[in-house]
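Q: Please design a sequence for this.
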């Protein structure tokens, strides 16, 4: 009687979510995209009673997305991310032609004007922070980087001679160059000296590796331990890589900077719901205020379309595109020397009348 188990027995098929992870890694999507897509696909399956997505169609997808909008009250961008995850599932994993999914209308995202801090508020905010968080906040405002772009910086990306910072694989998988502020150069040099001592200590213990792209890791096996590839802002302690399971030193968490900034806003008595991304908005707005060309600002921010950068011009147009309210012409407050700026002399006006009856 033949053995029921042979060497030719095919391996069991991988679970659906494992296939999703494999495909995302093959396409070199970020770890955050992987986590978000897997979570949405899992929620989609559970929403429909753990039925396999292969037996579900456009009606079930629309029901799920409607549930997110009506019951979950998620933002339009969140709903669209869920739809993108499902589109990835059907196209890349189930190999299903889904023209009907393309036909599902995406939620229309609201267009809000960004929150911007004044230069004085930025100065107070950064002054209320300390250590690494203070350096990071100053870097975000001084360069216009996104928070994860700053945290993922490598030593090799900072060029002190040219006063440039190379931002690798930014949003949209694009590289770009931004300036290295002169005020930050000595602070960054001192910071990197401390980071290098930490790295050398790791190497002495037989550690000191950092994540690098898979193709480079295969071609240059020793590169992961090279100083040039280390993160500019490394974490306090090594951690387990969620994809490979390898223990190595990652960059600091973005959440720690967010917490530090919330505390600094309270300490600085700034009553604006600002986040680290607000420093990027402030960078762009203040450059335009100082007369910088909008195309230059577009390149520094890494916008593919200048229309995205144009939103900062709306922030500049205070008071309805810079015109003077007719109420201010009736009841003026002290203005700077030179009058109203329209060639009309400003005469003293009465104060606003008190409310109530006489």
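A: Design:
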């Amino acid at each position: 009687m033949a053995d029921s188990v042979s060497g030719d027995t095919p391996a069991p098929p991988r679970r659906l979510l494992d296939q999703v992870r494999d495909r995302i890694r093959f396409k070199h999507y970020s770890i955050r995209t992987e986590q978000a897509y897997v979570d949405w696909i899992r929620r989609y399956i559970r929403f429909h009673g753990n039925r396999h997505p292969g037996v579900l169609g456009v009606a079930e997808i629309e029901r799920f997305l409607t549930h997110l909008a009506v019951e979950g009250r998620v933002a339009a961008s969140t709903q669209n991310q869920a739809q993108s995850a499902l589109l990835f599932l059907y196209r890349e994993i189930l190999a299903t032609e889904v023209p009907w999914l393309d036909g599902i209308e995406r939620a229309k995202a609201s267009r809000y004007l960004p929150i911007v801090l004044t230069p004085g508020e930025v100065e107070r905010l950064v002054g209320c922070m300390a250590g690494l968080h203070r350096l990071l906040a100053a870097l975000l405002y001084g360069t216009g980087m996104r928070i994860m772009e700053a945290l993922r910086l490598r030593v090799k990306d900072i060029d002190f001679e040219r006063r440039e910072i190379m931002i690798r694989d930014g949003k949209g998988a694009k590289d770009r160059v931004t300036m290295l502020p002169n005020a930050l150069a000595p602070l960054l040099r001192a910071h990197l000296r401390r980071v290098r001592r930490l790295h050398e200590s790791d190497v002495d213990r037989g550690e000191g590796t950092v994540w690098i792209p898979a193709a480079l890791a295969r071609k240059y096996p020793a590169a992961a331990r090279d100083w040039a590839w280390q993160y500019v802002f490394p974490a306090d302690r090594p951690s387990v890589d969620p994809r490979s399971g390898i223990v190595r030193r990652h960059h600091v968490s973005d959440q720690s900077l967010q917490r530090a900034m919330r505390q600094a806003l309270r300490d600085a008595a700034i009553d604006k719901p600002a986040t680290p991304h607000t420093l990027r908005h402030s960078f762009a707005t203040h450059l335009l205020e100082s007369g910088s060309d909008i195309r230059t600002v577009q390149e520094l921010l890494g916008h593919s379309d200048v229309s995205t950068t144009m939103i900062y011009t709306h922030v500049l147009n205070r008071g309805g595109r810079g015109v003077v309210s007719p109420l201010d012409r009736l009841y003026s407050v002290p203005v700077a020397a030179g009058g109203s700026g329209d060639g009309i002399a400003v005469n003293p006006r009465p104060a606003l009348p008190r409310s109530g009856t006489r």
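Q: Thanks. Anything notable?
A: The domain at 16-102 is CATH 1.10.150.130 (DNA polymerase; domain 1). The chain has 17 helices and five strands.
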